[in-house]
Amino acid sequence: MKYFYYVFFFLLLTPFAVNGQQHLQRIDLSGEWQFQMDPQDRGDEEKWYETTLPETVRLPGSMVENGKGDDITLKTEWTGDIRDPEWHKDPNYAPYYLDSTGGIRFPFWLQPLKKYTGAAWHQKKVIVPNDWKEKSIRLVLERPHWESTVWVNGQLVGTQNSLATPHVFVVSPHLKVGENTLTIRIDNRIKDIDVGVNSHSITDHTQTNWNGIVGDISLNATGKIRFENVEIFPEINSKTIEIRATVNNALPKERIVTFTAYAQLKKTGEKTERKSWEFRLTPGENRIKMEYSLGENALLWDEFNPNVYKLFLALKSDKETDEERIDFGLREFKVNGSRFAVNDRPVFLRGTLECAIFPKTGYPPTGPEYWKKIFSAVKAHGLNHVRFHSWCPPEAAFEVADEMGIYLQVECSSWANQSTQLGSGLPVDQYIWDESKRIVKAYGNHPSFVMMAYGNEPGGPHYSEFLTKFVTYWKETDSRRLYTGGAGWPILEVNDYHNIPEPRIQGWGEELNSIINAEPPRTDYDWSKKLPGDGKPVVSHEIGQWCVYPNFKETAKYTGVLKPKNFEIFRESLKAHHMEQLADSFLLASGKLQALCYKADIEAALRTLGFAGFQLLDLHDFPGQGTALVGVLDPFWEEKGYISPEEYRRFCNVTVPLARLEKRIFTEGETMTADIEIAHFGEKPLHASPAWELVQNGKVIAKDDMGERDIPIGNAILLGSVVYKFERENMPRKLTFRVKVDDFENSWDIWVYPENNVISSKEVKIVENLDDSTLNYLQNGGKVLLSLGKGKVPPEMGGKVGVGFSGIFWNTAWTGGQKPHTLGILCNPNHPALRLFPTEYHSNWQWWDAVSHADAIQLDSFPVDLSPIVRIIDDWVTNRRLALIFEARVGKGSILISGADLVNDLPNRPEATQLRVSLLRYMESDQFKPSVQIELDMLKKMTK
């Protein structure tokens, strides 16, 4: 039997690359392991490393994938802030949080099948072959979560705790030829080191605070002279690389060692010339440098030409050999004024976040396939950059980003806020230093790794001092990328670039006072006045955060360890409020508004002269922190059905035509003026023939060519101006203003309304309050238009609902109920009441005035069959039946009620005037026949 084991394990001895570095022999340790949970911390004291553990699991994998852990209950201890510990008593959750079996549904993030926080032991018998007797042997655990302690044959080897890089243990002194017992304890508790409970490296909000080991699990054997680390520093002008190698000589005396190198272009297989060097290595650790030329025809790396080389570096001294295989790119990423430059060409970062959101597994993939899916979605939507918020991905992510030309910002596993702070002498300070060095050592050769920050939004009184030292050290130590202190803040003098939240159309706490909610629609603003003024590149932090209604059809995709129990709560709530049939309509209508908001956010960034880029939160949904449905893609990076990648690329791309419009709503006889610009950050300057056109009902009513020209790389490049006077047609209409620059096209909707001099009616009584005279008139068969407005509806009838034009920012559960609380409007655009107010089924800019001067009207106490003419889509947590405009019968009369003000300041509100006219003409017609009767007492509750 022992002979069989030897033969089997010899078959596993194959060359293998760990973190891009080649090892000569390898034993794969994946498969079945003995296992035991240790919730009471008995294992160390009872010496479980000397016993046989009673259960089994399969590695790589997590405990929950193996069915291990505890059921989810109200007493489950989570890693991550929960704003309301008594959430299950909240009336929005209380009726729905228990499922049919009595199990709980957690509303704030995806729910794992099992949950365990503590120590868990893993054990395996390993056969070491005879020819490994004189080898240096290392145990590699690619991604444990999180602290690992290793014993070999009952002897303690050590403990490691990186969240970002493989745990590598030198186990040679403890192994013997033949059978060995390998024991590993994994502990996912926050103990001495708190990196921040909301850090995406550990939090249950996103990837979950899982327990286990994923990726490569192996023993690797090398000779007594071996590579410890190899760094490659490219020089694009001379097309050379400096190879900085750390080599360990475990022999007792000096040795002459020959190093040989060549490079291979991965795309074509083309090889460079081989070169050799000789060095005398002393016992112990040796640091050597070698300069290697790639040849004058060597290719550079960037987003357009992601030319990845693999360096083959070998050493030999008598019988001692070792080899490294390392991916790298010939590129330079540096500051160029207030922008970045890649290989001396200006670049604009169009980025999104990756917050460790992996619904199938609860942990990041260590193979390339899913990363190809992620980065393909990123590129399909016109983006070129990904920020890893408070975590660092595995090797496979860097490899795929290299091959696809994606620029990465990596962070050191921490969001030192809420539960901890930075710079106050806590253990997290040293952890950040150690983690940053581990990350650069493991992944620093990848050309995609262009930016690094400590992590996200630091807290504490001394974080600026700490981060100043952090940035200074790394700028002096490794010039291959750029550095900033933290994502979000602070602005430090030493920063290479700033990553700040001010340049965006909605900020935390702005509520209804933001540009998009407080100012009439226009496209002529930018962020020039929101920059620090020190001339350094600024990348806007977490722009967007625009929510959409849940896609309940998405739930079928959750076939892994995380389940959308939050969606079950929201769906049952919607059903209880008699609107389940509207779920898809709510998704599509709110999705159209979400896309409109992202377009406004992104275009403002592209209009800003000298701006360096943006980072979206997010291209895909963030399932944690109360459920933040902020993506046009779902958590699986797949489309939701309301905007395609092609549509998204019209306003988010390497080249985007732009228009500065002072307003989007016009009255007939007015003149539209627009400055047409372009943001172009392509591979080369563009030779193009820009043109514009004005389209009405599919027909071009005006157009012009702006002449053939050369367009340099940059933005705020003026292509021309448009002056167009709208003719008097006495017809309300929507037009589309389009700009095309060769294959790149963008457009903006505008509306033109007649000058409405007659906005009254002989048949309809228009009121702002319901006095006795109006009520008698109504009961006796009259027609009444009740115009309310902001602050007019009692709180219990909808007045407390924060109505704004935009959708919800982040979500209401995690922002303390920040306004707006709603997700736009839903209507039938063919309803006769809207015949003279051209609209789609969803919010567009012509609705800005109405909702900005409106209160929502809550219909939960009204008959279920009362269907509004214009609905307001509520937050998915509350799911109230809300109306902006609805009609009803009262007594013998008919009433149409508008939550929007249709009375005041009409000369300055053409949209309100036009909406009023449309409603009045409808009420005067035979089509105004409300079908639902409401009682007078119910009607009286509508006004204060």
Describe it.
An 8-stranded parallel beta sheet has the order 29-28-27-26-25-33-31-30. The radius of gyration is 32 Å and the shape is globular. Among the domains are: 2-222, Sandwich (Jelly Rolls), CATH 2.60.120; 225-299 and 312-328, Immunoglobulin-like; 663-753, Immunoglobulins (Immunoglobulin-like, Sandwich), CATH 2.60.40; 764-940, no CATH class. It has 13 helices and 50 strands. A hairpin with a 2-residue loop joins strand 38 and strand 39 (699-705). The chain is an alpha+beta fold and 944 residues long. The model is unreliable at 1-24 (pLDDT under 50).
What key phrases describe this protein's structure?
33% strand, Immunoglobulin-like, eight-stranded parallel β-sheet, 50 strands, 13 helices, globular, alpha+beta, disordered N terminus, 944 residues
Order of strands, main sheet, comes to 29-28-27-26-25-33-31-30
Distance between the termini: 88 Å
Q: How much is the average pLDDT? A: 95
So, the CATH homologous superfamily of the domain at 2-222? Galactose-binding domain-like
Cα-based radius of gyration, to the nearest Å: 32 Å
Number of strands: 50
Could you say what the CATH topology of the domain at 2-222 is called? Jelly Rolls
How helical, in percent, are the residues? 10-25%
Note poorly predicted spans: 1-24
Tell me the fraction of residues in β-strands, as a range. Answer: 25-35%
Number of helices: 13
- CATH class of the domain at 2-222, anyone? Mainly Beta
At CATH's second level, what is the architecture of the domain at 2-222?
Answer: Sandwich
Main sheet summary: 8 strands, parallel
Approximate shape: globular
Structural classification = alpha+beta
